[in-house]
Amino acid sequence: MTVENLWDRLADMTASSGMKCGRSAECHAECCRPSFTGGEPGVTPAEIELINSFLATHKGFRFYEAGEEACKFLGKNGKCRIYTVRPIDCRVHFCKEDSMESQINSEVSNLVEDYHARHKALFMATELIDSCRFSGED
Ligand code: SF4
Ligand code: SF4
Question: Which of 1, 37, 99, 138 is most exposed, with minimal Cβ within 10 Å?
């Protein structure tokens, strides 16, 4: 299974299980602000490649548009600017009623864990978004 196939399966599974982002007027995309959550999403080598391919078609991409305190891919409008190629970590985090507590879905977790295990060589060296330098970034 490619990482894109995994994204499709995760999208189907999260949709059919009713997992969804509880974004409301009160939410300011806190999940994309490590300074707020104290953590940041991981990104794997396969995902780094896909993000770099996306960035190659977006010359002049402005990193940290929402400021240094936010994920480097967050836009000023609170939306992910690499949404189509965002990492798995971002795809499986959905707040529970805006509490920032992630909804748990064991089927989804098992699928991700299984994928990681079967792509050990390529996929286990997970880096964090902030510490990784992407194509076009100084
Ligand atoms: S996952 Fe949570 S913090 Fe992130 S946009 Fe949705 S409601 Fe807001
Ligand atoms: S990659 Fe996108 S969805 Fe993930 S934390 Fe950054 S801005 Fe948010």
Answer: 138
Nearest to 21, CA basis, from 89, 73, 98: 98
DSSP per residue, 76-87: TTSSBTTGGG--
Residue 82's identity, in one-letter code, is: I
Q: Ligand 1, atom 7: nearest CA belongs to which residue?
A: 23
Measured between alpha carbons, how far is 128 from 43 in angstroms, rounded to an integer? Answer: 6
DSSP state of 67: -
Maximum average pLDDT range among 36-50, 96-110, 113-127: 36-50
Ligand lying nearest the CA atom of residue 33? 2
pLDDT of residue 98: 66
Residues 27/77, Cβ–Cβ less than 8 Å: no
What predicted TM-score, i.e. pTM, was given to this entire model?
Answer: 0.90
Judged by its nearest atom, the ligand closest to the C-alpha of residue 83 is: 2
Distance in Å, CA 123 to ligand 2 centroid:
19
**Residue with structure tokens 């939410």?**
27
Residue 53 phi, psi (nearest 5):
-65, -40
